[in-house]
Structures are given as structure tokens and as C-alpha cells.
Specification:
seven-stranded parallel beta sheet; Rossmann fold; alpha/beta; 3 domains; globular
């Protein structure tokens, strides 16, 4: 079995979660059994809705908090009628607005607020119980009640002091006792005094053997607990981002990315590291030799793969650009917006569609309004882009650092040329300058205005001077190396 450990997942997932989803698909096709373990708490959503949305099978998902129960990963199927059956015949009034419903019990000072899985159904995800104006309990459901939270008033606020996790038959599997940052887990035969210890206990219960593999995608708060309990399984660490700070590294000292400091320091316990590009593989190996005097196993396996190349069903939209990413400041989507507005002066029909969600969405919307470019720059939200890229003529990226660049891979898989900065590792991997796009030279002291202008200049150059047919062909040629069948071979060679 291959166990893949992560922290959380969301509707606007990062590249790590998408990398895991791609890996799940590849391992599935290769006939290698895998599980994906998530260790964060998800009080606002049912984890299954998010894991299924990104492409995991329910049978592949392990959630830390239900691992110790017999409850399975499942969509929400618990209904309002099932909830009402627990009222014991009490009279109530019922109102509903969108995803939220309310039960009021006359003469009791008690009401329930019910949060539905979606607006169009009666499927119940969460019920909040209020008595005499105080929140006292929250129940969470999938096909049964999976856990409850218990609250008491403290300083005029609801204070969480306990969680109970249930088996399918309603019996208590274990309890979490919490007081601020202090947490304990009480089992029938065991008391665990931290979440880290709980993670370690879970790993010990997997009964791993030398035939098993543990891949740790994120280490924060869990890495040590996993390593201490994973033997004799093989341990692997994927490198999802730029792993060091170049500006703070010299001949004698390397400043590593905090997310990878622990993973690299534990190299004697690690069976392999996975770089997503050959360039990062070379760099990681050379830095291990130079700064630590060791030579661990480092393999190159692309983060993602393409089941097939995507070709347009008709004509691509003339002078159309696409960019897709989390809408986060480090992605510099604002530079792309400004560049397109500037390029519009010379390519009057250029358009840009932005796909993704994130914290910068509001500021991007304001920027689009300020520039008056809403007619040709559009925020498209989070979508499945599998068959979307092929309708566009080109992809543009503003990011100055990518560990791999899943969207770049997907873009070349649909034949798109790419415009982006000459930075590690994604743009350098997927752009052959002047053949399927343009890599823009950049340095740390380059001002934003200059970066925007260079992006705009390359957009104009692409649409006025480039042989687009040849650029499309070259992208398709590069994409051949990332077909699932090719990536499968690398995983099989590593894990067999």
C-alpha cells in the first residue's frame, strides 16, 4: 500500500492537492493501491465533497478523525426527515432560506440551525443547537452522525470543550478534550496528549511493513510523528515548490524553504525524494553534496500527467489568453491583467480569462474595474479546465516561482504556447523560448512596471509576429513526455 500524507484540502486547493489527485489517477491506472490521508479538521465542509471534487475516490481517502471509527468517507446523505425523527414527537416550526434551515421548539427556548449540503436538497451536513441563547452543541453528518462538538459559555462566547467521534451505530469511538491550544484524546484503553501523538498513533495502527510506502506531501506538525512510527515502510518526500531561498544562500550556507527543512534534515531516514523537474533534481543533488556531504536518492517524476492531448473541436478563439491559478499575491495575476490592458493598445481584440479562486479575487475585481477592462478581462472562478484550454490561443503566467506548474503542463497538453518569466522551474521546463512561447528575463530588482511592460510586449509579439501553428505543434510535442503512460512507468519503477 502507498500512503500519501497531507494536512488539508479545500475548494480552492493548492498545487499540492492537485499533485496528489494527479498521482492518485496515475497510481490507479498503474494498478498500485494507494490511500490519501488528511489530518486537518474540516468543521465547515464534509471532506468527501472536496476530495471527490478534485478527483479522489472515496475508498482512497482516509481522514485522521474517522480513522479510529468505522465510519466511511461518504457524501452527505443524512436528511431532514432523519433529523426530525430524533425530536421525539416535539412540536416545532420550520423555516428555510437557501442552504440554511431553522427548527424552533415553542416554549423551550431551544432552536436548531441546520446547514444543508446544498441549496437544492434536504441533505443535512451540520446542526447547531442553541438553548437559552447559548450554543451548546454541533452535530456533523454524512450518512450518519460522525462527530459532535460541545460548547459552554465563557466570556460571553461559545467555548468548545469537547468533541465526540462516533461509530456507525452511534456508539462513542473516542473523545477529544480541548481547552484552547491544549488537546487530549481519550480512547477506551488509551489517553493521547496531543494531535501530533494522535497522528503517530494512527500511523502505528496502519501496521506498516517493508512492502508499504509512505509519501509525506506536507510535514508541518505531522512529519516527525509519521517518521517515528512508519518503520519499516519506505519513506518518500515530494518537493512541491522551490526548496530554498537563492538570495539567502551562499558558498557556505543554504537557507531552505521552511516546508522542506525537516524533510532534508532527516535524509538518513528517507528512502527517496521526488523532484518534479530534471533541473530541480540536479540542483537538489548538488546541494545535498555541497552543504551536507550526503547523496540521497532523488528521482524525477512530473507532478501531474495528461491522459491524452486535447485538440480544439473548432477554431481557437482569436487572440484569446488564459491564466489559471490560486488567486494569491505570489501568482501576480494583477501583473497579467495590467499587461493585457497595455497590450490591448496594439492588439485591439486581445482577451484574458482568469480561472481560479483565492484571497486576491476582490482586489483583482477592483483592478479590472479601475482599468475599465471588464469587457475583455473576465474572472471565471474555479472550474474543471480539462476541455477548456484547447479553446484558447495562448497561456500567460505572472508567477515568479513554480515548483512544477500543473496549469503549464495542462496548457501545453492543449497545444498552447506560454508567456512567462524565466524562473524556476515550471516556465523553464515548459517554454522553449521562441518555439512555443517566450521566457522573459527577470531579476529581483526589476520594478513591477517593467515586468508588466515586458509581459505586454511578449503578448503583442506572440499575436503579431509568431507562427502560431508552429508554436501549437511544439507545445504538443513537449506534452508527449507528460502523458500518463510515461509517468506511470516512472512511478512503477520507483515503487516496485
Amino acid at each position: 500500500m502507498i500512503y500519501n500524507f497531507n494536512l488539508g484540502i479545500g475548494w480552492a486547493s493548492s498545487g499540492v492537492e492537485y499533485a496528489q489527485a494527479y498521482r492518485a489517477n496515475v497510481l490507479r491506472k498503474a494498478g498500485l493501491e494507494a490511500r490519501f490521508v488528511f489530518t486537518d479538521m474540516f468543521p465547515r465542509e464534509n471532506i468527501q465533497h472536496m476530495t471527490a471534487n478534485i478527483g479522489f475516490l472515496d475508498s482512497e481517502v482516509i481522514w485522521l478523525y474517522t480513522f479510529f471509527t468505522d465510519c466511511k468517507t461518504s457524501p452527505v446523505t443524512y436528511t431532514l426527515k432523519q433529523l426530525e425523527a430524533t425530536f421525539g414527537g416535539k412540536e416545532f416550526t420550520f423555516t428555510r432560506e437557501g442552504k440554511t434551515a431553522k427548527y424552533v421548539f415553542p416554549g423551550t427556548n431551544v432552536y436548531y440551525t441546520v446547514y444543508m449540503a446544498d441549496e437544492g436538497s434536504d441533505r443535512v451536513h451540520r446542526v447547531e443547537m442553541v438553548s437559552r441563547g447559548c450554543l451548546v452543541r454541533k452535530d456533523y453528518f454524512t450518512y450518519c452522525r460522525i462527530y459532535s462538538e460541545y460548547y459552554a459559555p465563557l466570556d460571553k462566547q461559545a467555548h468548545l470543550y469537547q468533541r465526540r467521534f462516533f461509530n456507525e451505530d452511534g456508539s462513542i469511538a473516542y473523545e477529544e478534550i480541548t481547552d484552547g491550544d491544549v488537546v487530549m484524546y481519550r480512547f477506551p484503553d488509551k489517553l493521547i496528549c496531543s494531535k501530533e501523538e494522535l497522528v503517530g498513533y494512527m500511523v502505528s495502527k496502519l501496521n506498516l511493513t517493508e512492502k508499504d510506502v509512505v509519501i509525506i506531501d506536507r510535514t508541518t506538525g505531522v512529519g516527525q510523528a509519521i517518521l517515528q512510527n512508519a518503520a519499516p515502510a519506505r519513506i518518500g518526500f515530494p518537493i512541491h515548490a522551490d526548496h530554498f531561498s537563492e538570495g539567502s544562500t551562499d558558498a557556505d550556507y543554504i537557507l531552505r524553504n521552511n516546508y522542506y527543512e525537516y524533510a532534508f534534515a532527516q535524509n538518513r531516514h528517507v528512502s527517496f525524494y521526488i523532484a518534479s523537474t530534471d533541473e530541480q533534481n540536479r540542483l537538489v543533488k548538488s546541494q545535498f553534496r555541497k552543504y551536507m556531504g550526503v547523496a540521497p536518492k532523488v528521482v524525477t517524476i512530473p507532478v501531474g500527467s495528461l491522459d491524452e492531448l486535447k485538440y480544439p473541436e473548432g477554431e481557437r478563439r482569436r487572440h484569446s489568453l488564459i491564466t489559471a491559478s490560486r488567486l494569491a499575491s505570489e501568482k501576480h495575476v494583477d501583473w497579467v491583467v495590467e499587461a493585457v490592458a497595455l497590450a490591448r493598445q496594439k492588439v485591439p481584440d486581445v482577451t484574458l480569462d482568469i480561472y481560479g479562486k483565492g484571497g486576491e479575487e476582490d482586489s483583482l475585481r477592483k483592478l479590472i474595474d479601475r482599468l475599465g477592462c471588464g469587457e475583455y478581462v473576465r474572472l471565471r472562478g474555479q472550474q474543471n479546465l480539462e476541455n477548456v484550454y484547447r479553446d484558447y490561443e495562448a497561456y500567460v503566467a505572472g508567477s515568479t516561482s513554480e515548483g512544477f506548474g500543473l496549469t503549464l503542463m495542462e496548457a501545453v497538453g492543449s497545444g498552447l504556447p506560454i508567456i512567462g518569466f524565466d524562473v524556476r522551474y515550471g516556465n523553464q521546463t515548459f517554454i522553449d523560448n521562441g518555439k512555443n512561447g517566450y521566457k522573459i528575463p527577470v531579476h529581483d530588482r526589476m520594478e513591477k512596471r517593467e515586468r508588466v511592460k515586458k509581459l505586454a510586449d511578449r503578448i503583442v509579439k506572440l499575436f503579431t509576429k509568431a507562427d502560431m501553428e508552429k508554436f501549437h505543434e511544439h507545445s504538443y510535442k513537449k506534452a508527449q513526455n507528460y502523458l500518463t503512460v510515461e509517468v506511470e512507468k516512472r512511478w512503477v519503477d520507483l515503487l516496485s
